[in-house]
Amino acid sequence: MKDAPLGLDPALVLGVHDALIADYGSQDWWPAETPFEVMVGAILTQNTAWTNVERALGRLAERIDLNAESILALDPDDLADALRPAGYFNLKARRLRDFCDFYLRSGGMEVLSRLGAEDLRARLLAVKGIGPETADDMLLYAFERPVFVVDAYTRRLFARLGRLSGNEGYEPIRAAFERALGPDVPLLKEYHALVVRHAKDACRSRRPLCSACALRPDCPAGADTSPSAR
Ligand code: SF4
Asked: Any signal peptide, and if so, which residues (predicted)?
């Protein structure tokens, strides 16, 4: 068994996957028609719920075909208006335009998909408004690269499981999960999707539904059902 930093025991990490997929089934992520749509969604989903992203994507699709050329050709005010349901729509319109500019200057999917994962990650992170979580969403779900996406749900769930303090840096957490799970793209995709599903459905920020949780036998937070434990 490989060493796992941050106390992430590979058996426990895989056990969480097994328990969650038995409960919820495959999540079939990312919900998008094309890799480019995945990347647009990854930008729009920052700080908002996916249902709002879907509404914004629907409004955008009513105006243009979803490709980088059409997004850049759309009047910036019209773009922002289309993105209104996603919140921070002026900022997201600028970020989306910045990303589309980068995407086209880089040669699009054909060129970007030939880059190594670290090179591609560095280039994505150099685009204004793309942080590690957004870049890793793109790498995993659009480019099929074996990276683990760390988000607030991951931190909350594994903090409650007693495996993270919740305030570790992004990179140590990512590395720990990648060591535990290995370079298995389907598993990494499913894992992140299941964590999101569980955090929304059961392991909520307030009043988690511990009594029916499949992870409860291994969860110190779930073992104590008193309100002060949450
Ligand atoms: S037992 Fe409760 S706190 Fe623990 S993982 Fe399940 S829902 Fe979250």
From this structure: none
User: Each residue of 4-13: pLDDT tens digit?
Assistant: 457 689 999 9
Assign 182 a pLDDT band (cuts: 50, 70, 90): very high
Q: What burial letters (b/e) apply to 87-110, b meaning 16+ CB within 10 Å?
A: bbbeebbbbbbebbebbeebeebe
Note whether 123 and 199 are same-domain residues.
no
Instruction: State the residue for tokens 């970007």.
Output: 112
Closest approach atom of ligand 1 to CA 219:
4
Beta-carbon neighbour count of residue 134 at 10 Å?
Answer: 22
Measure 166 CA to ligand 1 centroid, in angstroms.
Answer: 15
Give the residue, by CA position, lying nearest to ligand 1 atom 2.
210
Q: Does the pTM exceed 0.85? A: yes
72 and 86 fall within a common domain: yes
Q: Are residues 39 and 127 in the same domain?
A: yes
